[in-house]
Amino acid sequence: MEPMTMLVLAFQLLALFSIAGALLIYLICKVREDNEICTAEAQPSRVVLVTSADTALGLQLCTHLANKGCRVFAGMKEAQDSLPAKLLCGWMKIREYSEDPISGTIIPMRLDVTREDVLREATVAMGAHLNADERGIAAVINTSGSVFRGRVESQDVQQWEHMLKTNILGTLRVAKAFVGFLRPTRGRLLYLGGTNGGARTNSTNSSGDGLVAFNASRVAVDKCAEELRKELQPYGVSVVALDTCGMTAESLYKAPVAQTVSANAGAPTQYTADVLSPTALQVIERALWDFTPQQRYTLLSHNKYQFTLPCRSSLRIQRPAVAVANEASATQSV
């Protein structure tokens, strides 16, 4: 074989080995990237959206989850100048300078389930706050809703429309807006359900108490969630109902309650969110983090031989530092 022919063959073999080596390196890198992605997906997200922190229940959930190390998006109709926004800001400052600072955080965000434009803005804002390695959020807790009590023959029709628009359409709008954040993490959509899908009527918010339209909307919400569960199950998204049997309708959506704790003039106003007991909060944690979530969790025990004391969770703003230090051991702040 001539020397020139041997040289050409050598260069061809060198080129083939180079291509094979480059392809092998590419495949190794690809496998590593896939493993990193799988590892990132396996790590549970600690980001939670509470759709309405305008209520005492929503505020209590936001602060409780932040205490547990979650990054909480707190939806509210006015995220800056409203009372809930100021209460959350004051609570964060108090905890920031306390001896035991929280490991989580709360991000107030404008959100109104009755307005499509505000929901679109909320999804954009949430995406901007997520880190580069975060592909979604762990859960959405829909605490939005409204209740108006009144007899059918005397109640304003606009109140019916508001309840139906907020409770029923709001449930569907929340799912439509945020399910894209739940699919990548196989997250969960939690909502405040009725009494066992509307099957029981002997609870404190039963019919006959001026809640015909409200109870009808709660049954419809349960049915919406049932159909959403079927539709989202193939994507790994779980739809979970928080059974509110035993809780009054007004307690679900009441605003933070002002309390007078001092007769001195100029004393700061204190607000309390006294809605969920510690046991109920633990139930919500199970609904969020159970490896295989149930379809329905009951917030209150129905055992007639047991009773649950309400949790004293207080929201305080403009509190003196001495008062905070004196009461830190006796009262859990929200």
Give a short synopsis of this structure:
This protein has 334 residues and is α/β, with parallel strands linked by helices.
What distinguishing features does this structure have?
334 residues; disordered C terminus; Rossmann fold; 7-stranded parallel β-sheet; 4-stranded mixed β-sheet; alpha/beta; 9 helices; single chain
List the helices and strands and how they pair.
Elements: H1 3-42, E1 47-50, H2 56-67, E2 71-76, H3 83-96, E3 105-110, H4 116-129, E4 139-142, H5 157-182, E5 188-193, H6 212-232, E6 238-243, H7 249-253, E7 257-259, E8 270-272, H8 278-289, E9 296-298, E10 313-316, H9 321-327, E11 332-333
Parallel strand pairs: 1-2, 1-4, 2-3, 4-5, 5-6, 6-9, 10-11
Antiparallel strand pairs: 7-8, 8-10
Helix pairs in contact: 4-5, 5-6
Question: How would you portray this structure in words?
Answer:
The chain has 334 residues and is an alpha/beta fold. The chain has helices at 3-42, 56-67, 83-96, 116-129, 157-182, 212-232, 249-253, 278-289, 321-327; strands spanning 47-50, 71-76, 105-110, 139-142, 188-193, 238-243, 257-259, 270-272, 296-298, 313-316, 332-333. The longest helix has 40 residues, at 3-42. The protein is elongated and about 105 Å long. Mean pLDDT is 79; it is low at 36-43, 196-207 and 303-334.
